Amino acid sequence: MQTNSSSLCFYFSLLLWATYFENIHMLFMLAYRRCYIRFIRKVNEKKGVEGQEETRKAFDFMLGHVGSDIASGPVWLEYITFLKSLPALNTQEESQRMTAVRKAYQKAIVTPTHHVEQLWKDYENFENSVSRQLIVCVKGLKAF
Q: Are residues 23 and 66 in contact, defined by beta-carbon separation less than 8 angstroms?
């Protein structure tokens, strides 16, 4: 699919003419998803925890609409990177963050996208790093 403005406008016009309103909404989100997320992240970057929650909700909203599209791989990757970047002040928050990252990976890898191999490799690396961290913690506890 071409993504330049005139091609998209023409395609949207055809869909409007044929009354495929749901398709137009999805295509618009696919075409402009990166701009939408960049905008939301920029607006919320200085709002602290509240801004992070708003950004997470924007990702959830977008992935709820376009997450199953074959071209949604970059959005999944960006969402997972965002989740990994969230600060954790204590072990409970760290555990919640790891669980959120794990769930996002698990949803992303069962979605047939062009980036499924990259998502799978990243997920494998994530799980291996979590396992290594757990082993180090267990060894540290045995020392006591």
A: no
Q: Vertex 66, ends 107 and 111: CA angle to 5°?
A: 30
Give yes or no for residue 20 having a pLDDT over 80.
no
**What is the rounded CA–CA span in Å between residue 97 and residue 49?**
13
Q: Confirm if 15 and 1 have CB atoms less than 8 A apart.
A: no
Q: What is the pLDDT of residues 67-103, one digit of tens each?
A: 888 888 989 999 999 999 999 889 899 989 999 999 9
Contacts of 113 by beta carbon, 8 Å cutoff, 6+ apart: 69, 70, 71, 72, 73, 76, 119
- Has residue 138 got a pLDDT over 60? no
Could you tell me if residue 58 is inside a domain?
no
Both tokens of 45, joined, read: 């970057």
CB 48 within 8 A of CB 37: no
**Vertex 87 angle, CA 42 and 64, to 5°:** 60
Spatial separation of the C-alpha atoms in residues 140 and 144, rounded to whole Å: 7
Number of domains in the chain: 1
Looking at residue 138, which CATH number applies to its domain? 1.25.40.10
In angstroms, rounded to a whole number, what is the distance separating the alpha carbons of residues 51 and 41? 8
